[in-house]
Automatic annotation (TrEMBL), chain A:
It is found in: Nucleus. Gene3D superfamilies: PAC-like subunit. It comes from the Eukaryota. InterPro entries: Proteasome_assmbl_chaperone_2 (IPR019151), Proteasome_assmbl_chp_2_euk (IPR016562), PSMG2_sf (IPR038389). This is Proteasome assembly chaperone 2. The gene is Psmg2. Chaperone protein which promotes assembly of the 20S proteasome as part of a heterodimer with PSMG1. The PSMG1-PSMG2 heterodimer binds to the PSMA5 and PSMA7 proteasome subunits, promotes assembly of the proteasome alpha subunits into the heteroheptameric alpha ring and prevents alpha ring dimerization. Keywords: Chaperone, Nucleus, Phosphoprotein. The keyword Hydrolase does not apply. One of its GO terms (cellular component) is nucleus. GO terms for biological process: proteasome assembly. Forms a heterodimer with PSMG1. The PSMG1-PSMG2 heterodimer interacts directly with the PSMA5 and PSMA7 proteasome alpha subunits. It comes from Anhinga rufa (African darter). Belongs to the PSMG2 family. The lineage of its organism: Eukaryota, Metazoa, Chordata, Craniata, Vertebrata.
From TrEMBL, chain B:
GO terms for biological process: proteasome core complex assembly. GO terms for molecular function: proteasome binding. PANTHER family: PROTEASOME ASSEMBLY CHAPERONE 1. Keywords: Chaperone. It comes from Anhinga rufa (African darter). Transmembrane segments: none annotated. Pfam families: PAC1 (PF16094). Belongs to the PSMG1 family. This is Proteasome assembly chaperone 1. It comes from the Eukaryota. Signal peptide: none annotated.
Length: 269, 208
């Protein structure tokens, strides 16, 4: 459930009518969560509340987006909500894995919150196992999108203009019967469940995902967040003459330090 | 162990409750005849001041039970004026720092506090990108969300078994506002500490 930080009169913190909710799926390489970190850090978003739930493993730590001594002592928990009213953007960041058998209850709680807070649409950042791609998917861009029917009506045309590739469906019974197709997102965590639930509940949802593998997923996060930016235009992307490398405009949060372990003991050498 | 040595004793504290968990990590041999004191999660109340409660949890609470543990325990407590202090240990190998963990002066304490906690903290705060997990994290999350002042002291140690050095790392807490009034006589503490450690040692000895 959503619990605002500020219990006082300030309804501004929890009024998300017409906002876009951006959130990650806990998926392969944690790409969605890394990309969400970049958005929160770059846009300097304010924390407005917590998503208190028994579906995620508990964890706490100090402010992951700290820029100075003063703001580094604020406690952060496993699921928090940040907002940027000027861009009508609200972000839910999830920092820990799901507890067994809690996918469905979480999706239900989340979607009922989306409806009650009157968010206009939801954008889910996710990823899928690169090794599960078929021959055609190995060529070209590793980025894909999905739209629920309600959002298709609104922005379907824009996707065509951006030349984006829709996530392909796979045969339900491969090798036996190729006519029946079904959506398959291996390694995507709650992505498929959340998407199908949104379709049936009439929620405007877009899924943006990247094919990747576990490893150093920071470049994948940059790729996904730039993909998102092509559509939502959250930051101005400067296209240089040689390449479209916009990674320098995203601010890396301080908590990304030491992702691959501590310093080495000098005695090793 | 720190609490047993320095704060708890049978005269001033009485057992007021237990939390029973079904948990494959719990080593209960006989599930039908479990006495309250056989439980791994005991709640003590200070007889002279019933507003002070102490919880000793000596088993691992699985992640799918942490939420329920919290709801049950905090559900019985009045949240107005509540202040929570959590003590926990963790291997120093989990501590992320620029230097290697071999050079760190372990054991050492680090703290995390909720927004509402305005008291003095007895040690440095836990630096990013370090995090805390399991039951201590669950309790602190609960307190942060429901605006209860709470502080967690995490001791990073390089010793797996119970030992005096790690226990004594918590000593700075004895001078903190919350625990100052609860501390027992120092000489008795050393006696109990010795007793605790010798019982553990005999168990870990594989030779008769």
């Amino acid at each position: 459930m959503f619990v605002p930080c500020d219990r006082g009169g300030g309804a501004a913190g929890s009024d998300f009518k017409g906002f876009t909710l951006l959130m990650p799926a806990v998926s392969v390489g944690n790409v969605g969560q890394l990309a969400t970190d970049l958005v929160i850090s770059t846009l300097d978003m304010t924390k407005v509340g917590y998503f208190y739930t028994d579906c995620l493993v508990p964890m706490v730590g100090n402010n992951p987006y700290a820029t100075a001594e003063e703001n580094s002592t604020e406690l952060s928990i496993n699921a928090e909500v940040y907002s940027l009213p000027s861009k009508k953007l609200v972000v839910l960041q999830i920092r820990s894995p799901f507890i067994k058998n809690k996918y469905r209850p979480f999706c239900q709680t989340l979607l009922s919150w989306v409806k009650s807070s009157k968010c206009a649409r939801v954008v889910l950042l996710s990823s899928s196992h690169a090794y599960q791609r078929d021959d055609e998917q190995l060529l070209g861009t590793p980025l894909r999108y999905l739209l629920t029917p309600d959002l298709e009506k609104a922005v379907g045309g824009l996707m065509q203009e951006l030349n984006w590739k829709e996530m392909e469906k796979v045969a339900t019974y491969p090798g036996i019967n190729d006519t029946e197709k079904v959506l398959h997102i291996p390694g995507g965590g709650i992505t498929k469940l959340l998407f199908t639930e949104s379709c049936s509940e009439g929620i405007q949802m877009a899924v943006l995902l990247k094919f990747c593998s576990e490893g150093d997923n920071i470049p994948d996060a940059f790729a996904l967040v730039n993909y998102l930016n092509e559509w939502l235009q959250l930051i101005k992307s400067e296209v240089s003459a040689s390449s479209t490398d916009a990674s320098s405009q995203w601010k890396v949060p301080s908590s990304w330090r030491l992702l691959f372990g501590n310093g080495l003991p000098p005695a090793l050498f | 162990a720190f609490l047993s040595s320095f704060i708890l004793d049978s005269v001033c504290w009485e057992v007021v409750g237990v939390v029973k968990l079904w948990n494959e990590w719990c080593r209960t041999s006989n599930t039908t005849n479990v006495l309250p004191t056989d439980s791994f999660c005991l709640f003590y109340r200070l007889i002279s001041d019933p507003t002070v409660l102490l919880c000793q949890c000596s088993c691992y609470v699985a992640e799918d039970q942490q939420f329920q543990w919290l709801e049950k325990v905090f559900g019985c407590m009045q949240k107005e004026g509540l202040q929570v202090t959590i003590l926990s240990t963790c291997p120093v190998a989990d501590y992320k720092t620029q230097e290697s963990t071999l050079t760190l002066p372990s054991p050492f304490l680090r703290a995390l506090k909720t927004k509402e906690f305005k008291g003095q903290v007895c040690c440095p705060l836990l630096e990013q990108p370090n995090i805390v997990r399991d039951l201590p994290a669950a309790v602190l999350s609960y307190c942060q969300v429901w605006q209860i002042p709470a502080v967690l002291y995490q001791c990073y140690t390089d010793v797996i078994k119970l030992d005096t050095v790690t226990i004594e790392a918590f000593k700075p807490l004895l001078s903190s506002k919350t625990l100052k009034s609860l501390v027992k006589d120092v000489s008795e503490s050393t006696k109990i500490l010795k007793k605790l450690l010798t019982t553990n040692e005999t168990h870990s000895n594989i030779y008769i």
